[in-house]
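Try this one yourself first.
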């Protein structure tokens, strides 16, 4: 080793290496102790990194005296939080939602926000279902989005135009007699899930009444990735919307009566439909049938249990590629600071 830090690292590694002799491990420990004891004329340590109090992973995990959530109150979650906690990564949820350490909003999120607002204006009747009018509205706010380069801004603006065009064609087409009854609809319901009570708060992009008077929930997506058909069958966010309908979340939009949930769907505005479903000019639509079984309640109970027990262990997967916390995550090589 040509530096003190490298020497300390090699000595530490030797002390826990099962392939070396006991005598060599003891010699490494003694040298670390000598280095840790060295001090300058003012008593300041010359090699502080040699002392165990500077090492990561030497203490047991700590526990806060103040619980994260009150066990006597319902656990407050959103549909997207349920997906993160139960299916993706509980640590990512905790750091992003509870600690609020997530990265600032990106241009991609701004793209989605603008498209959602324009879709709401059309559904609520504040803006006509006309592409030229929507593009004028888009032009008025587009420069507020920060892109890495002018060519990227122009590219994404064209993508937004295509997404809005798909939305308009989807909006005016006959979809088995469904009619919009609410847009950007806020809801707040409390559900019993096993031993827990879960309070779900969120916003439905669009609520429609189908030909049988049932409530159908639409969620617009502007991301570049879409779940598989099998994943949509048990999509937590769509399922939460349907549960909320059962609990009266959209009664107001149905003149005070309790509608039956008729299903829910993801409308992928960035992605064109298959040729058999109308082709590229229409958005890809992924539908979830009315709920059957207890699987959603099980997901809610699992998520609530993790929050109340504060079990925020990391889970590696495809979601790691876009995670802001990789550098401090023990499930990732770049975040594995603890000596194993």
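Now uncover the answer:
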């Amino acid at each position: 080793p040509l530096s003190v830090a490298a020497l300390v690292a090699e000595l530490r590694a030797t002390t826990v290496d099962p392939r070396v002799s006991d005598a060599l491990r003891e010699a490494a420990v003694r040298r670390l102790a000598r280095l840790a004891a060295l001090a300058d004329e003012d008593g300041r340590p010359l090699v502080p990194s040699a002392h165990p109090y500077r090492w990561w992973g030497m203490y047991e995990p700590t526990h806060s005296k103040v619980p994260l959530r009150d066990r006597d109150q319902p656990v407050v979650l959103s549909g997207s939080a349920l997906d993160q906690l139960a299916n993706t990564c509980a640590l990512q949820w905790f750091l992003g939602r509870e600690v609020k350490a997530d990265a600032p909003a990106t241009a991609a999120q701004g793209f989605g926000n603008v498209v959602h607002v324009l879709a709401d204006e059309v559904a609520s009747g504040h803006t006509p279902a006309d592409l030229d009018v929507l593009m004028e509205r888009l032009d008025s706010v587009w420069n507020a989005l920060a892109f890495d380069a002018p060519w990227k801004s122009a590219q994404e603006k064209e993508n937004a135009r295509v997404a809005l065009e798909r939305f308009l064609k989807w909006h005016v087409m006959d979809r088995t007699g469904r009619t919009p009854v609410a847009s950007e609809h806020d809801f707040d319901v409390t559900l019993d899930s096993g031993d827990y009570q879960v309070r779900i708060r969120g916003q439905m992009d669009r609520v429609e009444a189908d030909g049988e008077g049932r409530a159908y929930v639409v969620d617009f997506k502007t991301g570049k990735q879409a779940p598989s058909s099998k994943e949509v069958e048990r999509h937590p966010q769509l399922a939460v919307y349907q549960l909320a309908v059962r609990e009266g979340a959209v009664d107001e939009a149905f003149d005070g009566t309790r509608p039956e949930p008729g299903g829910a769907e993801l409308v992928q505005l960035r992605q064109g439909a298959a040729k058999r479903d109308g082709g590229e000019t229409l958005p890809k639509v992924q539908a979830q049938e009315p709920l059957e079984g207890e699987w959603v309640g099980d997901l809610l109970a699992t998520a609530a249990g993790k929050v109340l027990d504060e079990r925020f262990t990391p889970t590696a997967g495809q979601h790691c590629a876009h995670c802001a916390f990789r550098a401090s995550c023990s499930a990732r090589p770049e975040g594995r600071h603890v000596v194993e």
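Discussion: The chain has a mean pLDDT of 90. The radius of gyration is 27 Å.
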